[in-house]
Amino acid sequence: MTHTKTPPRVIRPEDAHFVPRAQDGDMAQLAEICGTRDGTELGAGYARLTNARINWTVKYDEVLVVVEGKVRVHTKHGVLEAGPRDTVWLPEGTELTYEAENALIVWAIHPADWAERA
C-alpha cells in the first residue's frame, strides 16, 4: 500500500453514513470507519443489523464488537452468541450465518482490500 495515511479522527455512530449492503438490502447497513482510502490495510466500520439472517464465508480475518443488541453467529463449531461489549473472532475461511433482530456492531477486518486481492 503506497497511499499516505489520513490524519487521526473521531467517528461517532450518529455521524456515520450508513448505506445498505447491496446483496442484503436493509438487513445490513454499513458505515466505514477506515480502509484503503485511508492508506491502511485495516478495514473497520459500523454495521446495523435488522431482522438479519446473512450467509457468508469470511474472506479476511475479522473481529466483531457488539455495541447494542445481540448477534448470533452460526458456524460449524456451533452458535456464538454475543451481546453488548462482547467480541467475536472470525478467521478467514469461516462459513457462517450472521443473525440479529436489531444490533449495532463494530467490525474490523484485515486485509481491507480483500476483494481486489481475490
UniProtKB/TrEMBL annotation:
Native organism: Chelativorans composti
A Pfam family the protein falls into: EutQ
Protein's name according to its UniProt entry: Ethanolamine utilization protein EutQ
